[in-house]
Amino acid sequence: MKDDMMKVLSLLNSEKNYESIIDFTSNILMEHPDDIKVYYCLAMAYIAKGDKTKGLKHLQNLITQSLSANKEDKLLRLFINQVILQTIQITELSLHGGDVLGANTIQMVKEVKLYAHKLGERDLEQIAENILKRWIHINSSNQPIVALIPDSPLTLQVEPTNACNLNCTMCPRSKMTRKVGFMDTAIFDEMLDGWKNRVIVKQIQHLIFGTTFPLIKRGSIKLFFMGEPLIHNQLDKLIESGKQAGCTVGIQTNGITLVNKEVRQKLLSAKPSVIGISLDGINEMSYEAVRQGARLLDIYNGLKALHKEREEMNLHRKIWIMISSIIPKWNQSSLEHAQKFLEPIRPFVDHIGFIPLSRERDPKFYDENGKIILYSKQPISSTSKLQSLCLEPFTKLNVLWDGSITPCCYDINCAMPLGHIKDGIDNVWKSSKVKELQDALLNQNIKKYHLCSVCMSNTKI
Predict the structure, then answer these.
(1) Quick one: which of 168, 268, 338, 356 has the fewest CB in 10 Å?
(2) Residues 18, 19, 22, CA angle at the centre, nearest 5°?
(3) pLDDT score for 140
(4) Residues facing residue 374 across a β-bridge
């Protein structure tokens, strides 16, 4: 029976009939829930058809289930060890951030490495060794930190311009002292040329049938930093270049120029994966007081037209329109006020997300009555205790309009320069400056990094 079952699965797998594999294995597992190899075939079918979330969940459940399996069965144990390492490799192809794997997972990899060494399985031992180099594991204050440090950044936040058409009360641009300018398309293209992780294609091998299928991970580019992207007259060229290089490209905008049809048409024709619009307030007065220079009616009309034209161009499955709304306090009252305010535009967007007000620099913002007030800097607990690990310097670089590179989205004046795109993105990433910063964050020894100290302590900027 088992041989016949595996023949059927092998045939379906060679035909790439993953839906049938899912149906077939799901039925078998109802009667034989402990069959690890059938469970593996189910997980890989999900991954091969493009549903990495479900596939990884099944692989993780399989690993948990197998830990109580017969450890005397060397072939089964070797198979499970291969599954553990493959699961982590697939997980890496799903990430844009770190601190995902638990300390127990790292311990499992260490055990796999030891077991592979004992059996003389050099290839398996080498895979485990490479994973342990990428996933850094330390203990601080008796709490484990696990952070992925890839060999090339996963995300680039790129500044098309640091010029802006608004004067928002909470924006740190008023403290910006560097020159205002617009990114040249040649700088953008040079940036892409020096970035290996703009697209990764990895062949995944089925551990039972030996067949392979490709998994693609696209580097992420976010076009936004200290200015308004839509006032860059070649923004569409930047988006198109990023997409041609294999990346996913999104923008974040204040949205006021979307009232202009030509701007909308150029943007939609470039096909960014995400168009994010920043829209805050609990009424027209609070919105226009915070986003000084904007008119709420223009935002509504621009969003409505953008949604309509996206549908007409049949781009609703390719371009995601979302709203990001800052709220003064992370509580139910603030959320309810903001949700009520944004309700009229809900039909024209795919998602509305809320962000608590960043109080790094004593911002002015609306209160729960819509009045503009000065907020004091947010008190932060002492750095003698373990802080949340800042993930930006582990997976991301920020590229300013002139090609300068900084590690931090709060570094408005490039006070912590890491290099320039002419050095090559990957060369900067592997530089001693980046390595020293990562080590300092992991070990919470950040005294010499002024911006990090401000971010993680009570020091005033």
Answers:
(1) 356
(2) 85
(3) 52
(4) 364
Q: Which residue has the tokens 């450890």?
A: 71
φ and ψ at residue 262, rounded to 5 degrees: -60, -40
Query: CA 106: distance to chain centroid?
Result: 22
**pLDDT tens digits for range 172-185:** 888 899 999 999 99
Cα–Cα distance for residue pair 258/254, rounded to 1 Å: 9
Summarised one tens digit per residue, pLDDT across range 24-71 is 999 988 888 888 889 999 999 999 998 888 998 898 888 888 776 656
Distant-in-sequence, close-in-space partners of 303: CB < 8 Å, separation ≥ 6: 255, 258, 277, 321, 345, 348, 349
Alpha helices in 222-331 (DSSP H): 235-244, 261-270, 284-290, 296-312
Return the closest-CA partner of residue 229 out of 269, 192, 272: 272
d(Cα 461, Cα 458) in Å, to the nearest integer? 9
Residue 25: alpha-carbon gap to chain centroid: 32
What is the average pLDDT across 446-454? 78
Q: Identify the structural domains of the chain with CATH numbers, from first to last.
A: 1-146 (1.25.40.10), 155-435 (3.20.20.70)
Q: How far apart are CA 325 and CA 339, in angstroms?
A: 9
Here the tokens at position 308 are 């309509």
Burial 234-261 (b: 16+ CB within 10 A, else e): bbbebbbbbbebbbbbbbbbbbbbbbee
Which of 257, 240, 258 lies closest to 249 in space, CA to CA? 240
- Comparing CA positions, the residue from 348, 428, 442, 324 lying closest to residue 389 is 442
| Residues 55 and 204: beta-carbon distance below 8 Å | no
Distance in angstroms (rounded) separating the CA atoms of residues 255 and 166: 10
CA 452/CA 383 separation, integer angstroms? 11
Structure-model confidence comparison of residues 4 and 207, the more confident one = 207
What is the separation of C-alpha 129 from the centre of its chain, rounded to a whole number of angstroms? Answer: 25
Alpha carbon distance, N-terminus to C-terminus of the chain: 71
Q: Tell how far CA 127 is from the center of its chain.
A: 25
Give tens-digit pLDDT for 296-326: 999 999 999 999 999 999 998 899 999 999 9
Quick count: other Cβ atoms within 10 Å of Cβ 333?
Answer: 11
Model pLDDT, residue 98: 46
Other CB atoms within 10 Å distance of the CB of residue 212:
12
How far apart CA 237 and CA 387 sit, in angstroms, is 40
Bridge pairing between strands 199-205 and 212-218: antiparallel
Plot region of 258 (φ>0 → left; ψ -120 to 50 → alpha; else → beta): alpha
| Token representation of residue 247 | 């990346």
Question: What is the secondary structure of 103-117 as a DSSP string?
Answer: HHHHHHHHHHHHHHH
